[in-house]
Design brief:
461 residues; alpha+beta; Uridine Diphospho-n-acetylenolpyruvylglucosamine Reductase, domain 2; Uridine Diphospho-n-acetylenolpyruvylglucosamine Reductase, domain 3; seven-stranded antiparallel sheet; five-stranded antiparallel sheet; 28% helix; globular; binds flavin-adenine dinucleotide
Length: 461
């Protein structure tokens, strides 16, 4: 579509000056400075009628009401780590200005706005010896991760990040600002933890902060030529770990880019990640057998402050066109490891940048104190692939990911985690939930969003 066509549609669909008059935040139409919005995953196609930097929950309510009156939908973005498209029937709410981050050390909680990234909460909590239960990348948005559950480097010790939510402030699709907690709008509280943006746009969350300052953690990098040996040893070793520890393993082909350590750049490596809250001596003893399985290129596991948790996975931070695929696995057999090595090991001509296995179980598999819409707690591993869609390899990246996922299907549970999906395809979203959860989420969405204003992106309908 040309810019002129876009502008005509934009004028036809909505009088944005009317919206501007109703909110404190800023409204940007196509072509206006502030409209273009680049998130982490630049594959997202963003052509909304307007982008709105909301200033508070009342702004969100006004945007949703406006969209309902004009037959439009509303999408949401904090950091753009997930690639969700918006078209000209949509308004895109950006939450960056919702930047409240207040730690209450006595209550061991943090009140966090929808625009805040995990590192900000980590840094605010650290002086009090407290730690939010975050994911591997502290640059990810707090609310975005919690809305999909949240599985981090200490998942087997602390469980699902969303289990630490005390309450939400949320604007539902009928434009009403509500509080959701176990004792208030309990059905919303259930569905907001796992249902992504299905039931509303979250404006603020209160989370519990466990006590933790230090851990024994990091990654050991081996030469890719040792992939079969390392993966096989990891397969046997990981199930022996105590609940104090969590681990993942990644086959990585990192390019020579700023931020990638020279000894890892431009070569094939295998990273064993480990994080434990046990005393350093006990953790080191638990790690010893995998540590010595091959000659490491770099051994960066040791005592570290929780605030440095991002160093364990060392996920990329710069925007890039990411293609992700994966699945939950019920088991990891010898044959599964051989298959994975065949697909992504030293002899595989793969274009995938990373193929990762995260061990699940431990506290994640426990019955939660308050149930949520997060399903598949019983899966044993999460398999995740990352490729970069750049010419001339973009088609090969997709084909390589598809081939790997197909090859690993014999060990799949059939389920996926909402946070590792980034898709608006109903069939893909369906894999994130069991039948009852889908039915409940869809029914609650009809109740709270009768006009289907939030029916865009990764939502259940
Ligand atoms: C490098 C990297 C590492 C990751 N590591 C982990 C990990 O360890 N564990 C894990 O669980 N996930 C992980 N993820 C996945 C991540 O949690 C999801 O992509 C998450 O949706 C990102 O949220 P965001 O706000 O940063 O991104 P955005 O693209 O801004 O938002 C993504 C989605 O989150 C939802 N959302 C965001 N804001 C709101 C809101 N205010 N109200 C309602 N819904 C909202 C919407 O569905 C939105 O489409 C990782 C992703 C990347 C790219």
């Amino acid at each position: 579509m040309t810019y002129q066509q876009h502008l005509t549609d934009f004028n036809r669909l909505a009088d944005l000056d009317g919206l501007r008059a109703k909110i404190r935040g800023a409204v940007y139409g196509p072509g206006e400075t502030g409209y273009d919005t680049v998130g982490f995953n630049v594959t997202a196609v963003n052509e909304p009628t307007a982008v709105i930097d909301v200033a508070d929950a009342r702004d969100v309510a006004a945007v949703i009401a406006f969209a309902g009156e004009h037959g439009m939908t509303v999408g949401v973005r904090a950091t753009g780590h997930a690639a969700i498209d918006t078209d000209r029937r949509s308004l895109l709410v950006r939450t960056g200005a919702l930047d409240t981050c207040e730690v209450d050390p006595a209550d061991r909680t943090a009140r966090v706005g929808a625009g805040v990234r995990w590192q900000q909460v980590i840094d605010a909590a650290a002086p009090h010896g407290l730690a939010p239960v975050c994911g591997s990348a502290p640059g990810v948005g707090v609310v975005g991760l919690l809305s999909g559950g949240g599985v981090g480097p200490l998942v087997r010790t602390f469980g699902l990040s969303a289990d630490y939510v005390r309450s939400f402030e949320v604007v539902t699709g009928d434009g009403v600002i509500r509080r959701a907690a176990p004792d208030e709008n309990a059905e919303l509280f259930w569905g907001l933890r796992g249902g992504k943006a299905t039931l509303g746009l979250i404006t603020e969350v209160v989370i519990e902060l466990p006590e933790l300052s230090e851990m024994y953690a990091g990654a050991i990098y081996f030469d890719g030529a040792d992939a079969a040996v390392v993966l096989d040893a990891w397969r046997v070793w990981a199930p022996t770990l105590s609940r104090s520890a969590s681990t993942s393993v990644a086959l990585m082909r990192l390019p020579e880019l700023p931020g990638v350590p020279p000894m890892l750049a431009g070569r094939f490596t295998v990273a064993v990640r480990y994080a434990s809250v046990a005393p350093a001596s006990a953790a080191a003893a638990e790690l010893a057998s995998i540590r010595s399985v091959a000659a490491p290129i770099l051994d960066a596991v040791g005592p570290m402050p929780y605030a440095a948790i991002g160093a364990i996975h060392a996920d990329p931070v710069d925007p890039m066109p990411v293609h992700e695929a994966g699945m939950l696995l019920g088991e990891l057999t010898d044959e599964a490891v051989q298959t994975l090595v065949g697909q992504a090991g030293p002899d595989a001509a793969t274009t995938l940048l990373m193929v990762e296995l995260r061990q699940l179980g431990g506290a994640l598999a426990d019955e939660p104190a308050v149930h949520s819409a997060y399903c598949h707690r019983d899966a044993a591993y999460n398999l995740h692939t990352v490729g970069v869609l750049v010419r001339p390899i973009e088609q090969a990246v997709v084909a390589d990911a598809d081939r790997l996922v197909d090859a690993m299907r014999p060990w799949a549970t059939g389920g996926r985690m909402p946070n590792f999906v980034s898709s608006a395809d109903p069939a893909v979203i369906r894999t994130c939930y069991d039948d009852d959860t889908v039915a409940w989420l869809a029914a609650l969405a009809r109740q709270h969003d009768p006009r289907g204003v939030l029916a865009v992106g990764q939502v259940v309908r």
